[in-house]
Design goal:
The protein is an alpha+beta fold and about 200 residues long. The chain contains seven helices and six strands, in the order ααααβαββαβαββ. It has a six-stranded mixed sheet, sandwiched between helices.
Length: about 200
Amino acid sequence: MILAQVQQFYESLGHQPRHELATFQRYFPHDYSLNEIDDETAQTFIAHNPSANQALLLGISIGQQVVKARRPSLLSAQHSATFGHFAQKEIGGQAQEQLCLAMVDTQLNVIGWEVVFVGTLTQVTASPREIFQRALKANAYAIIMVHNHPSGNVHPSAHDLSFSQKLFELGKTMNLPLLDSFIVSQQDYWSMIENQQLERLA
C-alpha cells in the first residue's frame, strides 16, 4: 500500500495525516483502486479537503503517466544492414573521426544515439568508462559502438579490433553487452559481428 507516501504528502502540507489517511483509505482501499477512479468518486474525495486532495489526485495521475512513458525508438537494430545505413547517414560523411554509441532496449530498438568522442582526421581517443557510464545513465539493455573512417576505408585496424574486443569483454562482465561494432564511411559500413570479428552473443 502507498499509505506511507500519502502520509508524507499530507505532512508536507502541514496537515495531521491520521484523519486524511482514514478518508483516503475509505475511498481507495487498495492500490489498484487508484487506477479505477471514476469522476464521481474523485469529486467526492476532493470535497473532503479540496486543495490537498485535488493536488494528491493530480500527483497520482502524473505518476501514472510517467510510468507509462517510454523512450521513443529511433529504429530497430535487429538487422545489421538497417543499422549500418542509419549510422552511415549520421556520421559517414564527417571529416573528423567520431565515436558514437547506440543504446538499445530489450527489443533491440535504438533508444539513444550519442556522439561520445570526436578525434583528429586519423584517430579518436575513447574511454570505456565514459561509454558505459552513458549506457547506464540511459538504462540501456545493450550497446552498439560506431565510428567513422574519413578515409573511406571501412576495414578495421588492429586498434579498432582490440578496442572493440575489450568493450565486448567488459560488457559481458557488466551484463551490458556490446552487440556489435560498426565502422562507416559515406559509401559503406562494416559490421564486426557480420564479419565474425567479435564473438556473437547467444
